[in-house]
Write a structure and sequence with these properties.
The protein is α/β, with parallel strands linked by helices. Helix content is 44%, strand content 15%. Strands 1-2-10-7-8-9 form a six-stranded mixed sheet, with helices on both faces. Strand 4, helix 6 and strand 5 form a beta-alpha-beta unit. The longest helix has 15 residues. It is globular, with a radius of gyration of 20 Å. It starts with a helix and ends with a helix. The structure holds pyridoxal-5'-phosphate. The site of pyridoxal-5'-phosphate (PLP) has 18 residues, from helix 10 and helix 14.
């Protein structure tokens, strides 16, 4: 084997022709992307029909979520523009990614979080990477408003998905799926929070289509959490609620673009309950061996819901994006999994508990 075949080049290099970079753009990379596309046969057989399901496990990115695809672009362009500092509002993963890539680039980073509503693993990442972590008494939408106002008034680069380079970088998820399958999937299922990612995937598929790399476009299936479903309900939600904190957003920044992705692709945006999300997260962990965070499981929960409704007809393949790693939110996993069994240090007691005797 040649060393070359093993080498991962930065996403920005790999998909350079599709990204807004020049020879002068410094590339700030942590070897993001190249995430596995895992065939989920046990899950598919449970749903019956002729479905082939693939899980694009974005939890395998350097900071454990897809946000790294956008952040490598946003931070590289910030450095190119001479920026010294970054800021973002976050339900946790954008902050973790911004903190890591800013650290790598030598930029100061501030993250604005809704107090008490961010999973502990994500907070730990922002802190250890040296970001200034500011937790406000408000929700994500408040945090985003404050972040916008600060970035407009001071020389600090905003790295939320309002930053167009974030969306550009996140298109690479679609490129990887098409490169690996050799075509676009029939359906692309994805959780929707601030709606940047559904926007980015759709833009990515369209760019590949326009370049003649794929012959068909997928049908986009977006899923919001039931009590945080502004796009489905048709109005902003003042106090969004869900255990899937990464998609607990009441007024998505890319609302219009998400609706366009849905309509142009002939797809849907629907909602799933916290119970459906939890069931899907447990199922993925127990039958496929994949531990994703609750928000990520919304894509699979949505596909299960739609399969039960008889939505999918005939032979088709579905890619579900698993947006983040389950280790981000260990508290949640412990809450929904069976309990630890505590025993004396005694072989017989252990054997008995295992029903061996
Ligand atoms: C950010 C995030 C989402 C939501 O993505 P949007 O682009 O805001 O729609 C979903 N899941 C995880 C794990 C995330 O970090």
């Amino acid at each position: 084997m040649s060393p070359q075949s093993f080498k991962r080049i930065p996403l920005i290099e790999r998909y350079r022709e599709f990204l807004p970079v020049t020879d002068r753009t410094p590339i700030i990379s942590l070897s993001e992307g190249y995430t596995p596309l895992i065939k989920a046969d046990r899950l598919a057989s449970m749903l019956g029909g002729e479905l082939t399901i693939y899980l694009k496990f974005e939890g395998m990115n350097p900071t454990g979520s897809f946000k790294d695809r956008g952040m490598t672009m946003a931070i590289s362009k910030a450095v190119e523009a001479g920026s010294r500092a970054t800021i973002c509002a976050s339900t946790g993963n954008t902050a973790a990614s911004a903190a890591a890539y800013s650290a790598r680039a030598g930029l100061v980073c501030a993250v604005i979080l809704p107090r008490g509503a961010v999973a502990i693993g994500k907070v730990s990442q922002s802190l250890i990477h040296g970001a200034k972590v500011l937790a406000i008494d408000g929700n994500f939408d408040d945090a985003l408003r404050i972040t916008r106002e600060i970035s407009e008034a001071y020389p600090i680069t905003l790295v939320n998905s309002l930053n167009p380079y974030r969306i550009e970088g996140q298109k690479t998820g679609a490129f990887e799926i098409c490169d690996e399958l050799g075509h676009a999937p029939t359906y692309h299922a994805i959780p929707v929070g601030n709606a940047g990612n559904i926007t980015a995937y759709w833009a990515g598929y369209k760019a590949y289509y326009d370049a003649g790399k794929i012959e068909t476009l997928p049908i986009m299936l977006g899923f919001q959490a039931a009590k945080s479903a502004p796009i489905v309900d048709g109005h902003p939600i003042e106090n969004p609620e869900t255990i899937a904190t990464a998609i607990r957003i009441g007024n998505p920044a890319s609302w219009k673009q998400a609706v366009a992705a849905r309509d142009e692709s002939g797809g849907i945006i629907d909602k799933v309950t916290d119970e459906e999300i939890t069931d899907a997260q447990k199922l993925l962990a127990s039958v496929e061996g994949i531990f994703c965070e609750p928000a990520s499981a919304a894509s699979v929960a949505g596909v299960i819901k739609k399969a039960k409704e008889g939505f999918f007809r005939g032979k088709c393949d579905i890619v579900c994006v698993l947006t983040g790693h389950g280790l981000k939110d260990p508290d949640r996993a412990i809450k929904i999994a069976p309990p630890i069994i505590e025993l004396p240090a005694d072989t017989k007691a252990v054997a008995k508990e295992m029903k061996l005797v």
